[in-house]
Amino acid sequence: MRGPAPVGRLGRGTAKNYSMGILRGRGAEGLPRIAPMLDERARSLLKTLVERYIADGQPVGSRTLSKASGLELSPATIRNVMADLEDLGLIASPHTSAGRIPTALGYRLFVDTMLTARSSLLAQEVHALEGQLQPDQPQRVITHAAQMLSSLSNFVGVITAPRKPSVFRHIEFLRLGERRVLVILVSPEGDVQNRVVMTAQDHNQGELTEAANRLNAQYTGLALEVVRERIRAEVEQLRGEIAGLMSAAVQVSDEGEAQQEQVVISGERNLLAVQDFGQDLSSLRRLFGLFEEKAQLMRLLDVSSRAEGVRIFIGGESQVVPFEELSIVSAPYEVDGKVVGTLGVIGPTRMPYERMIQIVDITSRMVGQALSQGRP
């Protein structure tokens, strides 16, 4: 008998509509070819195997599958189906066990086609925590959101602080020496960004002043995002020396905006209790290095912010998540209808994905609502 309808790619909207990640590695590219090859029996056994492995953390044997799946199949038939699934790269057999475990490709097929949309299981838990998101204190909303994600998931919660709209106020170019120019960018709040750039050719101070005056006359008061787009559109039509200086200005503004981004992480120590990591000090060191460096984490969350709805990144299938044992469930959050940040849960590949999707989806909407209410 068929179960509930598979989750679709319906984007943001309700708690039951999810958009799965589409950044896939070489293995996941085979899903369109593999999925039609599985009949209902094979799909049911794979789904049961993944669910049992997520729940127990132990390789799943044919006897366990026979009992858990509810299918009236002989052990020999189940073993044959498992052998076929292994040939397709969806499950693997550890050296120490006769049972099977899902591969990254198996998890991806499970996540994309076998998760079922059910009513939220988190109502009471969320209700107990939602009072922490006070709209009059935006920074505390961000901090408490990371803690909420960690508390509900028992893994790591991560969130980027809202991007502040940057406005172009004033720029100066100062000649330091041959082909060396100091770029000074001033924000309306008086924040100053400095960067020394090497130009393709030498400029005198008059040429530098001309370029600065042109930028200040045309772009003062505009959002940096608009300034960057206009400069990139015009740069091909400008004289080479001015084009190079304007490109340098764009680069400085990009770097300043990246430095503005803040990542809040909560619950790193939860990973010490995860069976998949607890016995492997090398994996733990690599994971904590990811949290400390943050740059790689920022790149991943930036990818998530450009998509609608919840995205799932499974370790081992893409360079986006460089750790085979790690999965990330993430979603952007909005303030007044505009995406301003991203949040998510980081945990083992063997995580309860349906619950994590609900946690991330609900939290993203709660954060967006709290920050929108807190705006003047």
Summarize the structure.
The chain has 376 residues and is α+β, with helices and mostly antiparallel strands. It has helices spanning 31-34, 40-56, 62-69, 75-87, 104-113, 123-129, 138-153, 205-219, 224-234, 240-260, 275-278, 281-293, 295-305, 353-373; strands at 91-92, 101-102, 156-160, 170-177, 180-186, 192-198, 263-266, 311-314, 326-335, 338-348.
Q: How does this structure look, described?
A:
With 376 residues, the chain is an alpha+beta fold. The protein has three domains: 27-113, Arc Repressor Mutant, subunit A; 123-163 and 261-373, 2-Layer Sandwich (Beta-Lactamase), CATH 3.30.450; 170-260, Enolase-like, domain 1. Helix content is 45%, strand content 16%. The chain has helices at 31-34, 40-56, 62-69, 75-87, 104-113, 123-129, 138-153, 205-219, 224-234, 240-260, 275-278, 281-293, 295-305, 353-373, and strands at 91-92, 101-102, 156-160, 170-177, 180-186, 192-198, 263-266, 311-314, 326-335, 338-348. The radius of gyration is 25 Å and the shape is elongated. The relative contact order is 0.15.
